[in-house]
Amino acid sequence: MVSDGKDMILTARPHDAAYVRTISKQLLLGLDLLHRQASLTAVDLQPANIMISTAHRDILLEPPEFSLVTWLDEMTMDDSAPKYLIPSQRRRGQLDEADCSELMVKLGDLGGAVQNQESNDKPVTPTALRAPELIHRNSWNSSIDIWALGYLIFELATNEPLFPLGTFGLSKEQVDDEHLDLISRLLDGDDHINKTLIRHLADRLPVNFGATNIKCFASFLWSMLQQHPQKRESAAELLYHPFLTEHVSEKGKHDGGTESSGQQSRSQMLLL
């Protein structure tokens, strides 16, 4: 594969609706296959474990560069380290201008995947991507993947973390409290429409994303980011969400006409 999700969110720019729709659908297809046919929970969904390439494009790798490992003077040499290191051969930015219809997305690094069942074991999940039940140290199931996917899709769309969680100098309890506070501030609200989430997206997505698309995208994320695991939709159900099935033109009449030039007015329009 040419890139991973981590590279894709280093561009410092948000993506349009077609791009987000393409990535989201393929991620859900992979997760549905994992959950329903393989009966597995990934538990470690994160940007570096999303592999992305293109279907109709020649991709060249950088020539390999070998660096000899050198030991510090005070260290005793042994066989615990490799003799050489080699950086990634992938060229950065190769997919920046790629046609989103050509993107191929796969889930990778499933070495930590576990059988679908209720569990009380601590999963290997990045701190910021933990679902509320993991923060509370309650039992969990495959719906933690759905929560993590909602986080990842938000990040891929906006190039910002959903919950900018600080951990330096904080105890585990303080990190947990901060995490729960961030979740509460953004996601507490009505079950059908979360105006805070819509406004949050409107302030971060590009103007050409479209007002109707932003509302629909907020609903899509809302279906994944339910704080109660039982309320989260499955991957199979999410594949039929209107954001993926009803392609709304970014500038068409179904999208509320021409977008306002200011982010503040866009937020107000979305909440009408």
From TrEMBL:
Region (Disordered): 249-272
Comp. bias (Polar residues): 258-272
UniProt keyword ATP-binding present: yes
One Pfam match: Pkinase
GO MF entry, a single one: ATP binding
GO cellular component terms given for this protein: nucleus
Domain Protein kinase: 1-244
Domain of life of the source: Eukaryota
An individual GO BP term: regulation of RNA splicing
Keyword check for Transferase: yes
Signal sequence, renumbered to the chain: none
InterPro entries, per database record: CLK_kinases, Kinase-like_dom_sf, Prot_kinase_dom
Keyword annotations: ATP-binding, Kinase, Nucleotide-binding, Serine/threonine-protein kinase, Transferase
PROSITE patterns: PROTEIN_KINASE_DOM (PS50011)
The protein's name: Protein kinase domain-containing protein
Organism the protein comes from: Aspergillus calidoustus
Top-level taxonomy: Eukaryota, Fungi, Dikarya, Ascomycota, Pezizomycotina
